[in-house]
Amino acid sequence: MNNHLFGSSSPKSFNAYPKGDFDLESGTFRRIRKPKNSVFGPVEMFKSFTNRLHYCYKMHPLLVFLISLSLGIIILIIVSFYESRYQITGSYQKSDVVLDSYPFAKLQNLVMVAGHSVYTSSSCGKVDNEDSWFLESYQKHPGQASTFLAHIEEGIDITAKDDGALLLFSGGETRKDAGPRSEAQSYWAVAESKGWFGQKESVRWRALTEEHARDSFENLLFSVCRFRELTGSYPKNITVVSYDFKEERFEQLHRSAIRFPQARFFYSGTPASSTAKEAALKGEALVRTQFQEDPYGCIGSLRRKKIGRDPFHRSIPYPKGCPEMEGLFRYCGTATYPGSVPWT
Asked: What's the superkingdom here (predicted)?
């Protein structure tokens, strides 16, 4: 018996029955082909869908068009519905925030004191001294400072008599050499130094400032907007405090320009100093003529004057706080503003 050595371990294995199908005719085994892995991913699905859609479109073009149109309309309706719901919800939330943020919502009437100068003294002990104020050449008259105090006191007295009034001192940073101090803040500081002329408890908490106006028209326009910012509504009545010789300018020209009802507009004027009265009347006649030709102060000399009274290039925030007045703020023309206003 012959022994065959194949190695040091167990005998070598072999396939007694090879894998595959036996072909009787050829006497051989055929290997079975392994099926390829079928990957039917998103790309193949999309291609299949587009192919079927293309086939359907060839067979029934009108039907496919109508189905596509219907789906588009349904999607548009759904999107519009949710968009409108979002906008309504957002507006309600915004309204709630705004309503809660008005600190003087119960006040209905506006008392506006128009500023005419900037207080520059480091001490409030000399408020009736002309050297304590920055005065233009046409203002340098004895007793001029006292007229500013008269306006402040008059505004406080009117406000004290009306529990529903908001007092605004109006006037911007109009003088370069006076530094970045506003006329409105000057008047408020003087009122504070004077103890609000005996009306501190009644008036101080509802006396604020409007610090962007550069002329008399803006004193009125900006103060109405500022009132809206603080109260959430527009003034039922307006009282303007300034010099007596400016009454026609405010009552006839500025009030008419913003189309505020005459029956709800009041004016309280105090006299100029005796030494300045004649020059003041001549100057007022000229300015009144300019506003008759340019009621909104947006062209010519009035516009140039406003630019000169903005030496620190302050950005005016209005009409952000009074959106109902946006058209009025944007308007520039010689005719009366034809758009809608929120107080008529």
From this structure: Eukaryota
Q: Look up residue 296 and give its amino acid.
A: Y
- Name the CATH superfamily housing domain 109-330: HUPs (3.40.50.620)
Cβ-contact 313, 276 below 8 angstroms: no
Question: What is the pTM assigned to this prediction?
Answer: 0.72
If you ran DSSP here, which 8-state letter would residue 84 be given? H
Over the stretch 103-114, which tens digit does the pLDDT of each residue have?
Answer: 999 999 999 999
Helix residue ranges, H only, 101-182: 144-160
Assess whether the previous peptide bond of 319 is cis (omega < 30° from 0): yes
Hey, which bits of the chain come out as E strands?
21-23, 28-30, 109-114, 118-119, 133-134, 165-170, 207-210, 237-243, 265-270
pLDDT value of position 56: 73
Question: Please, is 40 exposed, middle or buried when counting C-beta atoms within 10 Å of its C-beta (0-12, 13-18, 19+)?
Answer: exposed
Q: Are 234 and 227 in contact (CB under 8 A)?
A: yes
- Indicate the SS3 state at residue 139: helix
d(CA 338, CA 332): 11
Closest CA to 276 of 111, 113, 116: 116
Measured in residues, the chain has a length of: 344
